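Hey, I'm writing a tutorial for new members on how sequence and structure tokens pair up, and I'd like a real worked example in the thread rather than a made-up one. If someone can provide the structure for the chain below, I'll link this post from the tutorial.
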Amino acid sequence: MAESEDAARLKALEAKIAALKAPAEVKDHSEEHYSQVQLAWRMVIELVSGLGIGFGIGYGLDTFFGTMPIFLVLFIFFGLAAGVMTMVRSAKEVQRKQLAAATEEGEARGD
């Protein structure tokens, strides 16, 4: 009887060790609490970089042609438009991912 108890304890111990050695489930980064902050910063950086690139191109053209603020103003607006378009594209991408995740979750529950 002592041998069967030892065998049962040994099997239980082996099961615990196997459970601990199993690879941990990898979480999607969007499940983390800080993913929304990362998304917000990404959008801000996209907008500011569009403005910065537009400013640089406009200032460079104005300096080259000697026509101060014409190209500068024009390309700042182009940069703003490009930054906003990139932000909208990023928002649509995130919305598509969230919709796909919700659809998968609904299918998993049987809805």
